[in-house]
Amino acid sequence: MTDSSPVETAQITFVVDGEQVSVPDNGVSLLAALRGRLGNRAPKAGCNPQGQCGCCTVLVDGAPRVACVTPVRRIAGRVITTVDGLAEEDRERWSDALLATGGSQCGFCTPGIVCRLEGLRSKNTAADDLDAVDRALAAHLCRCTGWQTIREAWSMVVSGSSAMEHARGENRNFDDASRRATIEGRSTQQVSAEVVLGRGGFSEDTAPSDALVAIPNGEGGWVVAGSLPEARALAGKVQGRHGTTSPEPPLELPEGDWELTLRTGWVEPAYLETDASWCEPGGEPFTSLANGGAFGGKLTTEVGQVARELAYEHRQAVRVVLSREDVVRTGPKRPPIAAGIRSDGSGVIRVVRTDGIAEAIARVAPQLVVEEVDVVGPPTSIDIRGAGVVEAQLLLAALDAKKSTQATDGEAHVASVTSAEGAVATVAIGLDGGIRVDLRCGRLLDAIVLRSYAIGAVHMALGWVTSEGLSVAEDGTISDLTIRSFGVLRSADMPHVEVTLHEEDSEPVNGSDAVFAAAAAAVWSAQGWPTDWPTGRSVLGDERVTQ
Predict the structure, then answer these.
(1) What is the rounded distance in angstroms from the CA atom of residue 304 to the CA atom of residue 207?
(2) Same structural domain for residues 183 and 284?
(3) What percent of the chain has pLDDT over 90?
(4) What phi and psi, each to the nearest 5 degrees, are found at residue 177?
(5) What band does 212 get if pLDDT is binned at 50, 70 and 90?
(6) What confidence score (pLDDT) does residue 305 get?
(7) How many CA atoms lie within 13 A of 483 on its CB side?
(8) Within 13 A of 365's CA, how many CA atoms are on the CB side?
(9) Quick one: 503 and 374 in the same domain?
(10) Do you find a cis peptide bond into 534, omega within 30 degrees of 0?
(11) Is position 49 within any domain?
């Protein structure tokens, strides 16, 4: 006689945020168990399961660990602490400090970073040991803040600085702070302690627990299953890899006698929260933007429409989520250019054909001729932060910098940009490698937020010039599919940035895009105006940038 009773799956028991839990021993990661089985949305999935962005970092017996590459069976009997499980006074310390410095913008990477730094703090690391902080942050990626404000928050927490009190004091208007963040991010954004702790309303965090999960099947369709691990197994998801070739600009320079020439390549926006949405049958899909605009990279995403259609088809809530590899393969990139500019400011910008790019460039630099070229490669969009506009502005700013042969006040290179909205940004790179930003963009509303966005814009500009780029084959295939292969600058590679803000009696306008353009022009000038980006050099000199 055969026993037909079901085989019981072994259970793994451990403690999460003070509560003993058990999950099936079915081979999933700790992150999948926390988010999928236990409904703990504190750790975030930014590159899952590449183990490279740090957003899913939790404490295992007090030591930081990346949850997406930790098999759940390895933590049997151990104590797991997410940012939600930290002592209340510790959560408050970190949220106050990060609010006080502007060290959290969208809030997606922050919970993992807080866990990492809390683990470092438990080792009695000194407040001024920023080398140790940089080493800890090497396991993380933050696209928004430029790292400096995170390092400042560390120093505040460990030193017990009273400056943190301003973050939650009566003198700060969080409506104004949120308004400034929305202006800078060009998408609705909130500033609060809840955002710092990762509770900014991200799509994957707000989806119903019983929602089906849909992911691309690699053939233009969608696989729908009861959980993300099941969907990935059915789709036969293959882990992304780091390409072995260097990124190359795809366009040839226009012919001419030029004062400056510039060629850029394919650049990944590198937002950390991958495209995701969910929808109930007959309802409206949840926004994929959540608390921030992903630098324009999600404005054309299809996940919301797909969620709507699949929810109607399956008569059940469906959440649609792209993997990091999906985002890289299908998400829009910054349009590559090849440009030449004469000493009088006239010239030619050759650009990968992109809807609206010629008009965008003409609005800020009508003297530049735009030539659009069809190129086999990933999609492009003018929605990406200042696409076309920033390129034209930095070319003209770098030309002005080149004409100025004498450094002033000990500063090696200075570039200024005035945006179409009226923001004026001047970025100076000192002989010591430090960076100074001077910004006028109407009423400040909230100086902490604006400063943070300015530092973040410098970080993005430096990466664009020096290290960021995707390797794209002749057939348009992208080989750089891991988040570390994008070339985003690490904390240890980021120079110190000093920001001066000016209060003006005029309507507030976006200022960080002007800082982005001016910083790119300044560092390009400091490097001697090499034609091809990324240059692979550090901010000053020929030292190679490593990732």
Answers:
(1) 12
(2) no
(3) 88
(4) -60, -45
(5) very high
(6) 98
(7) 26
(8) 26
(9) yes
(10) yes
(11) yes
The CATH code of the domain that includes 352 is 3.30.365.10
Tokens for 124, please give them. Answer: 């009695």
Tokens, residue 516? 């982005």
Residue 512, token pair as written in the block: 């960080």
**Strand order across the 318-321 sheet:** 222-225, 212-216, 318-321, 276-279
CA-to-CA distance for 362 and 350, rounded, in angstroms? 13
Instruction: Identify whether residues 14 and 56 lie together within a single domain.
Output: yes
CA-to-CA distance for 233 and 223, rounded, in angstroms? 10
Name the amino acid, one letter, at 179: R
130-137 and 148-159 helices, crossing angle to 10°: 120
Alpha helices in 70-173 (DSSP H): 88-101, 110-121, 130-137, 148-159
Residue with tokens 């090497």: 138
Most confident option among 11-20, 405-414, 478-487 = 11-20
Please tell me what DSSP assigns to residue 311. Answer: H
Which one-letter DSSP state was computed for residue 72?
A: G
Paired tokens of 370 = 């735009």
Q: How many domains does the chain have?
A: 3
> For the chain, what is the mean pLDDT?
93
Query: Residue 7 domain-assigned?
Result: yes
CA distance 68 to 49: 5
- To which residue do tokens 């990477």 refer? 109
Residue 15 has which token pair?
């403690």
Note the pTM of the prediction, 2 decimals. Answer: 0.95
Does one domain contain both 158 and 226?
Answer: no
User: Distance between CA 327 and CA 329 in Å, rounded?
Assistant: 6
